[in-house]
Amino acid sequence: QVQLVESGGGLVQAGGSLGLSCAASGRTFSRYAMGWFRQAPGKEREFVAAISLSGGSTDYADSVKDRFTISRENAKNTVYLQMNSLKPEDAAIYYCAAAATRGRVSYTTRSLSDYDYWGQGTQVSVSS
Predict the structure, then answer these.
(1) Rounded Cα–Cα distance for residues 35 and 52 (Å)
(2) CA torsion angle for 100, 106, 112, 118 (degrees, to 10)?
(3) Which residues have CB under 8 Å from 17's CB, separation 6+?
(4) 40-90 residue pLDDT tens
(5) Within 30-102, where are the H helices?
(6) What is d(CA 24, CA 14) in angstroms, rounded to the nearest whole number?
(7) In what order do the strands lie in the sheet with 4-7?
(8) Three-state secondary structure call for residue 120
(9) pLDDT (tens digit per residue) in 3-53
(10) How many CB atoms lie within 10 A of CB 102?
(11) Three-state SS for 82?
(12) Helices within the chain (DSSP H only)
């Protein structure tokens, strides 16, 4: 069982930056690939970024590539999402999620159904 708690959301002006954190419970954090997703009002939850269990592989949605950076510290059971050059369309509830890798070191996934555990989300608002 893995419990995930996001933090760091808030209100920022367009063009600004915000950093999100996701703290995981349990001693098996390093066995999971991690992902960030977001959901805006009236829209489906969408993939933002993912990172492999070692941090060696990352993947980004085209809409955030070159603006967002995902990273992780396995010693702290934490995954991060640094968001720069924020746009009003980035406003959403951001969720982190954990996907079992079954030993695949470079595994990342964009599919919601591949993720086994989800946090409660943190709100990100961007003013224009």
Answers:
(1) 9
(2) 50
(3) 82, 83, 84, 85, 86
(4) 999 999 999 999 999 999 999 999 999 999 999 999 999 999 999 999 999
(5) none
(6) 30
(7) 4-7, 18-24, 78-83, 68-73
(8) coil
(9) 999 999 999 999 999 999 999 997 788 899 999 999 999 999 999 999 999
(10) 7
(11) strand
(12) none
Contacts of 53 (CB under 8 A, 6+ apart): 30, 31, 32, 33, 74, 101, 105, 107
Q: How far is CA 91 from the centre of its chain?
A: 14
Length of the chain: 128
Quick one: tokens of 16?
């600004």
Q: What is the rounded distance in angstroms from the CA atom of residue 35 to the CA atom of residue 32?
A: 10
Residues facing residue 46 across a β-bridge: 38
Evaluated on CA atoms 43, 10, 49, 68, the torsion sign reads: positive
In this structure, are strands 78-83 and 18-24 parallel, antiparallel, or unpaired?
antiparallel
Rg (alpha carbons) of the chain, rounded to whole number: 14
Question: DSSP 3-state assignment of 74?
Answer: helix
